[in-house]
Amino acid sequence: MDIRISPCRKLRGRIEVPGDKSVSHRAVMLGALSEGITEISGFLMSADCLSTISCFEKMGICVEANETERSVTVHGRSLHGLRAPSELLYTGNSGTTTRIISGILAGQSFESMLDGDSSIRRRPMKRIIDPLLAMGASVRSEKENGCVPLRIKGGSLHGICWRSPVASAQVKSGILLAGLYADSETSVLEPALSRNHTELMLKAFGGSVLSEPLPDPLRGEEKKKDRIFYGLSSETAGGWKITVRPEPRLTGRKICVPGDISSAAYFMAAAAIVPGAEVLISNVGVNPTRNGILKVMRAMGADISLSDEKLQGFEETASILVRSSSLHGTVIGGSLIPTLIDELPVCAVLACFAEGETVIRDARELRVKESDRIAVMTEELNKMGADITPTEDGMIIRGGRSLHGAEVDAHADHRAAMSLAVAALAAEGVTTIRGAECVGISYPDFFKDLDRLRTGC
Ligand code: S3P
After folding, report:
1. Using CA atoms, how far apart are residues 351 and 68, in angstroms rounded to an integer?
2. Residue 221 has what pLDDT?
3. Which residues line the pocket of ligand 1, CB cutoff 6 A?
4. What pLDDT is stored for residue 236 in this prediction?
5. Cα gap 9→14, rounded to integer Å
6. Of 20, 115, 260, 342, which one is the catalytic site residue?
7. How far is CA 134 from the centre of its chain?
8. Which domains, and CATH codes, for the chain?
9. What pLDDT score does 200 carry?
10. Cis check: omega of the bond before 149, within 30 degrees of 0
């Protein structure tokens, strides 16, 4: 599907974005492994989350979904109640489903096969295969290329202490959930704290999880620079250790999913760069392991204010008001990266409209997302007149030039599609986005919601 976007003269109003993708996936997974019923409200009805539901249905879990109410009821069958699937578990485009489910399957005594779409078939799975092998599971990449299809057979797992070279919540969560089935404690060490939804939710379902900051290995000037720049406290700069205890049972509960800050980010960015814009996004999850976009936009001079801040269950939420303002360049790197990893494509767009240079670094992970987001954002924004140089682990963006409409391609990446749409709003002339249907992965009504704000409703 091609979408044509003309420059935006007015962007005003209030919006509620759909439920958080990460929290929605985890609510289904933990609900399935619990005893009793888990009622989920505000569930994200998108292709990725439906892939998770479908995998658990194939393992005997009854899931009732009401699409218009955005509610899902999961009838849990306990930690040992999953049934051997009679067919392949298809995870579609979802890295979260693939990597976290691998951990759960490693704890099951039956054999299963996991596979996904062409993008998932290219994404690295060795990062989850290796720790699960170390725990004693049998995990085979069928094509021996470290990717899906994976054949997994679990059983008696040992607790391990695993140092993950990447700060990845998918990997961390897969290992922690396998740890529920192990014979002793399992720890994951990560270089920076990645999103902690699994830890928070596991505790809420009755699990035992401990998160500890590790001692700081940095010294001297580098340490000072890192601290000043990222606003880190001395306790967190050495990475984190997350430990889970094997669990006899989890108990189902009510989960209220907050709005997804990764989806809100497109409207926040649009409001910042469209002249005269003012947008209020209500009920957004602002978990500190996810809210890096707020810090970066503030560092760029954006006019952002938070209200109605509260704890919704175990997740922090707030309403976010963004008004148009003039932006300037910044540096985005270090421990901040995992807290806004999915927002970096739209940060690149913001940087095009900011005076001066923006440097995104330490973000090599962008190369192995749904697309190579460094290559894709560079190529497509440059077609619109941007001045971006890709680097090994990020981008250098020289902002302050006006962008013009162009024919661009989403490369089957939902976040690229929505980021390009934001750029198009503040460009001169019409932009056509090829393959824009991929927004259905995380935000099926994105273009509808954008239109509502454009007409000020
Ligand atoms: C996610 C973790 C992140 C993120 C993805 C969702 C999760 O991936 O990019 O969209 O829900 O755990 P990584 O774990 O690969 O960093």
Report:
1. 37
2. 47
3. 22, 95-96, 168-171, 173, 194-195, 341-342, 365
4. 55
5. 17
6. 342
7. 26
8. 3-19+258-453 (3.65.10.10), 21-256 (3.65.10.10)
9. 98
10. yes
What is the position in ligand 1's atom list of the atom closest to the CA of 25? 11
What pTM does this model have?
0.96
Q: Which atom of ligand 1 is found nearest the CA of 169?
A: 14
Angle 167-16-196 (CA atoms, 0-180°, nearest 5)? 20
- In the block, tokens 């749409």 appear at 421
Dihedral sign computed on CA atoms, order 77, 83, 87, 92: positive
186-204 pLDDT per residue, tens: 999 999 999 999 999 999 9
CB crowding 443-455: b at 16 or more within 10 Å, else e = bbbbbebbeebbe
Protein residue with least CA distance to atom 16, ligand 1: 168
Q: Which residue's CA is the nearest one to ligand 1's atom 11?
A: 22
**Active-site residue 183, yes or no?**
no
140 vs 153: CA distance, rounded Å = 9
CA distance 381 to 422: 11
The amino acid sitting at 367 is R
